[in-house]
Description:
Helices cover 14% and strands 31% of the residues. By secondary structure, the chain is an alpha+beta fold.
Amino acid sequence: MFRSLGTIIVTAVLVSAFWIFYQGITGSRRDGKVEPVGDKAIVQPASAPAVTVAESVTVGPAGLAIPVAGIKADQLVDTFTQARAGGARVHDAIDIMAAEGTPVVAAAPGTVEKLYFSNGGGGVSAYVRSDDGLWTYYYAHLQRYADGLAEGQKIGRGAPVGFVGHTGNASPDGPHLHFAINRMNPGEKWYQGTPINPYPLLAGTPATR
């Protein structure tokens, strides 16, 4: 009996020590809330390593930051398959509505591959390729780029990309970020790739259709 009691006590102490050690490494709280550190926050996604981002940035369960500061998962709308141009083309992205000038941040780390302006399309836009080369993240209709953003620059998750706007073919009545993710095959250029729906990755819920 005493041996069993001793085993229970030792186990409890070891488990407690483990969680104290774990929290010391990640800075995360076991209740899933963000632990603020100055103007930064350490977030522990459900299925990805802990990441440090600005406190205004939300990280989804897939480890991608919602790329508009202050926007939460329950504010996102799945617009991936909505038709555009009177049904002439699909959307292949989600639109994240926000006030003009709201900071846009990198959903994932990577290299700024192309800064591009398309008057009849995405306007002021940025293409960031993931470190493994398998994905590109497309940020469009920006008001302007973040100061110092340049092609070839490596950026981290949550790093400034630009500001929400309505450049290109977006309406000034509805400023938003057009955000797309493309799966890239070897040798594909920044404007190529196969689009996937960002919504379930950011919102943590299945696509609506």
